[in-house]
Amino acid sequence: MYIIAEIAQAHDGSLGNALNFIKAAKKAGANAVKFQHHIASEESTKKDKFRVNIFPQDNSRYEYWKRIQFRDDEWVIINKACKEECIDLIISPFSIKSVKKCLELDVKAFKIGSGEVNNYELLEACLRTGKMMIISSGMSTWNEIQKSFDFCRQFHNEITILQCTSKYPCPLSEVGLKNISRIRSKFNCSSGLSDHSGDLHVGMAACALGAEFLEVHICWNKLMFGPDTTSSLTIEQLHEICSFRDKFFEMKNEKDKDSIAFDLNQTKELFGRSLVASKSLKKGEIIDDSCIVYKKPGGGLRLDQKSDILKKRLIKDIAFDEPFKVDHFL
Q: What is the pTM assigned to this prediction?
């Protein structure tokens, strides 16, 4: 499972904070970090309303985007940091100009946010770059997803559609994990989850159900300032999911039972049983049921070989609890 650490606005406009998030996400085991590329003048008017109005210094969403957007030279630094940390950079653009700016960076894929699924101008601008497309379905009907998918498919880009519910935080009852397999089947593309629950068990469950992608918001602490904090995982929780992913990958691989049994031959003998003498027996005695018991350890004659020694005459003395052998008989 490919895990994307969504930094979004958690950096609050601080380049240093953004760079630290990149390092922390890599150390936690994420495959990629995801940023949002905002150019306020290209995407918002001053009438644009806040989803969560918690910003004391910003009078409008336009002012907020203006304050936290990175300059071109800062994006170069972010891009370089991702390369140095060997972690993929994924970006959600929100304007045609953003897409053009992102082409100057080593972007692994474009992530289309839930609110932009029907923005065909933006979709086309991203698609014409040839980059992989990751589409979030958090606000869309099946019909809307189908239309966007059909539009994207004509450009022959690699396409992934993520199950998502755009609620912050998203209740567990509305996460919709079963939609992951439905998307994969319906659109014949890779799928996964863009999670806003803030619960690390959701990502683990998605992994166990075969999600190919998982996107989770991250934060330093659940008490930190930010519009997505309640919907985010801490770096420690991100590490737990990545660790679960790696262990689950090891566990789910098919293992040949015959090969395992061969490797466990010594253990098998320890836990197995052998046919042994129930009492001391003398040379010349004929073996009947009363002479035989089945006890640990294994390595001797098995229970299914009992009929091979019944009514046979001993050619040597056998001590109590001594395992029977084929050469004990005529």
A: 0.84
